[in-house]
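Per reviewer request, we include the raw input and output of the structure prediction for the construct analysed in the revised manuscript.
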Amino acid sequence: MDSTQEAGEGVLAGRVVLITGANGGLGEAAARACAAAGATVVLVGRRVPKLNKLYDALASIGPEPAAYPLDLEGAGPEDYETMAEALRSQLGRLDGILHAAVDFKGLTPLANTAPLDFARALHVNLTAPCLLTQACLPLLKQAPDAAVVFVLDELERIGKAYWGGYGVSKHGLLGLMRILHDETRDGPVRVSALEPGPMRTGLRAKAFMNEALNGAPGPGAYAAACVHLLSPAGAAQRGTVHVVREGASPGQALS
């Protein structure tokens, strides 16, 4: 069951939250839930028409959002610094980042993986979140309570054959989360990760083409968990991987 309506009305009121991959399944669901929870949502994605459509939808359910078209594949440090400065000058603050953007072309043996495909997966899934967070850290540190949330996958499952650059990058993302948490543990910026359960998305369809996806929930089932981690209540998961399965309450981590 989609649970965007259960994300906690008002728990993000007054906060500015940036969501990458807002064009995608989880990113869009999380954006809608964050807006309903009172946040000013900054939509980051590469498909401008979809961003504009989502912008209009969010404006009708919460504070006026902001759209920032950006292709993470081609973006570099200067682009993220420009974005951070735009956030500072136009919105005056940043209270959270949800890294929901993802690159996955399908299951392929490493021996057959095109070098550019491998490099793209590492860049979009690992390097880009690192550089974007780095550029935004000074602004995040100005908030009394700020959250950086990385979206993982089930590492035991994707650490096996054919997951290629996607599997490698998600393992690296866990390392990034742990290191950044250790470096920020005494400050206002708290870092955590979300590991959602199976959901009906284009990514999962690429990995499990023969799987009947009708039984899997939509990405909205995990939107409340995104809001939870970005809200003050998410401090309880600081430095941890928040494993959520369908049916769990927003603050309940399952192993």
